[in-house]
Every structure is written in structure tokens, then in C-alpha cells.
Amino acid sequence: MTDNNHWGLDTLALRTGQRRTAEREHAEPIFTTSSYVFESAAHAAECFANETGEHNIYSRFTNPTVRCFEERLAALEGGDRAVATSSGMAAILSVCLAFLQQGDEIVCSRSVFGSTVGLFSRMMSRFGITTHFVELQNVSAWDAACNDRTRLFFAETPSNPLCEIADIAALAELAHSKGLRLVVDNCFCTPALQLPLQLGADIVVHSATKYLDGQGRMVGGAVVGNHKDMAEVFGVVRTAGPCMSPFNAWVFLKGLETLRLRMDAHSANALELAQWLEQQPGVARVHYSGLPSHPQHELAKKQMRRFGGVLSFEMSGGKAAAWKVIDGTRMLSITANLGDAKTTITHPASTTHARVAPEARLAAGITDGLVRIAVGLEDINDIKADLTAGLS
Q1: Where are the domains of the chain?
Q2: Residue 32: Cβ within 10 Å count
């Protein structure tokens, strides 16, 4: 079941990583055990001496169900290895702990998830790690922010919530010219739509909570990269314990089975909704890279297979108008999560980015009139109809 070099993405998403037990099960089992029994004292010593995570020792860092998810996601992303974590933020934290120490610096795109901003600007700074936030698409700004203490570039593309696009290949070239790693958050696209490692990125991080699950059921995360880097990340997870549970891993495996089909459907609905929103009164601007009006539309076409399910739009009337749109809905779910089969809607300035300083929010383009929609799989005409009351 592991000879997958010739398989397409849909087959990888269904078959990679499964190792059938003596029971000959068809679906992947859930291994709900905290520990494992060894054949002898010598066997136990051999397993504990192995640092690769290949031998089952303790489910904090070795579990067959989690390993199956890791191998499947790594195959989809085109990486050597994945390391599963308890959440998307745990994935980012594990990368920081693996590669940074006191005195090091990060260059990060300004438009990232609010918790990512908080992790870098508040928590990492407590341990002597400095972050410089720059415009995502301005490669010269990334260059100018570097010095001999810089260790990581971190980019989220498309960005949350403005759908800005990073030139991954250009950032990778710059990072490698300075001996740095480029980390890309691929949460919005997933490997069904974008492959950052093929474009030169060193590490990909995911909030598996989003599209990898696809139905808003579980919280989890993952890091994908080459064997050497993932050994460092695995060491953090093994020691510090921000691990994924076997049941969550099993749910994510089921999500991966339909990933490409869902991402195509999300993208189709989002593009039609974005086109419709551009024509609505009171909407000043729509942020979606699938629109020709998007300033990086051509770059998005070059490095993404489709444009994803998340968009945002600016209401001319500011916060009052944005809240009116949100409160006018009856079907859409008012929640800050995304990547669900059900459409979700939120006001970033007062939810996902509420803990970001107001001046930093404005610098990132997150105004009080901004509304973000993660377009689900409902009938597109029903989504439009539900938004009409608040827009009229």
C-alpha cells in the first residue's frame, strides 16, 4: 500500500499510508492505546533507541493511525515526512521551537491569522525572538527586513482574510540565498490546489481543523518538509507533547479522501459568489484571487490550480454595514472557523484579529468594514439569497 510514486492526487488521498493488520480490515482502524507491548527487554531497548518514530512506543509520538495520516498528507504535499500536531497553532509553535533560539529573528507577512501574529509578536518575543512584519507581496521588503540574525521566513498564502498572494518561488529564492528556511501556511489552499514545496518552500504548515477535515469536527495541525527538518520538529512533539490524538487523525484521514472534490466545489462556489458580490450595492471591494480585478490574479493562476473557498469584501458603511450583513443572514453560520462544508461568515476586526493592535490591523488592510466568508457547499443561489437581506 506504500508504492505510490505513480499515483495521482485522488489515489494518494485514499490509499497512502494504510497498513492492514492481521484482521484484513478495509478501512483504516483507530488505535486507541496509550502504549505498546514489546517482545522482550532487548526489543524495548531497540525501539526506544530509534529516533525516527517508526517503532510504536507511546502514543504521544508514535501511533499507527496518526502515522497513516502523516504519511498520506506528506504524499499529497510532495514532502518526505509530515509531523501531526494538536492544532494548527501547535504546528507553527513546533516549527519555532525546532529552529529558533534566543536572539533569532523571523520575517513574517503582515496579513496572517491573528493568533499567528500573537504567537510571534507577544509570546516569541518573551524568549528573545524578534519578528518583523512586512507586506506579503513586496519581496524587496522581505529582503530589507533581513539581517544576520534572521532564521525564518513565514508566509500565509492566500492570506487571511484579504486573499493576498505571495510569490512563493521568489520568496524561496531570496530565503535560500541567505541560508534561511521558508515556511508556508497552506491552510487556505491545501495540496489539492497549491504545492508550496514544489515552488521552493522548505516547510508547509496546516491547520487540519480547516479543509483537511472539511466538516468542522476536529482540531489538529501538521508540519510537512524534508526528513532532516521533520526530525527536528518530531523531536519537539515527542518531548513537549503537542500531539494529535488517534481519533482526530482518523477523522482527518476520512477528510483527505474527498479533499480534491471538496476543494473544487468550494472554489467554484466562491468564484461565483465573488463575481456576484462585485455587483452588489454597498460593496466597495471584493478580495478574491480568482477575480481579474485582484492585483495578483495572474500570479494566483500561475501557482494555484484553483482559487479556494475563502473571500472577503469591504462594506462602504464600515462596521455598522458589515455587522448588518452578518446579522441579516439566517442560513450562514456566524463563526470564525473556516474550511467547513457549511458556509461561515465573520467580522475579522472583532473576531479573528481582535487581539491584533488597531494600527497593525489597519496596516494589514483589515478595516472595520471587512467581512470574511468561507464559502461552503450549499447551493450557491441559497448563499446569495441569504446575503441579500443584509446587503439591501
Answers
A1: 9-257, 260-391
A2: 12
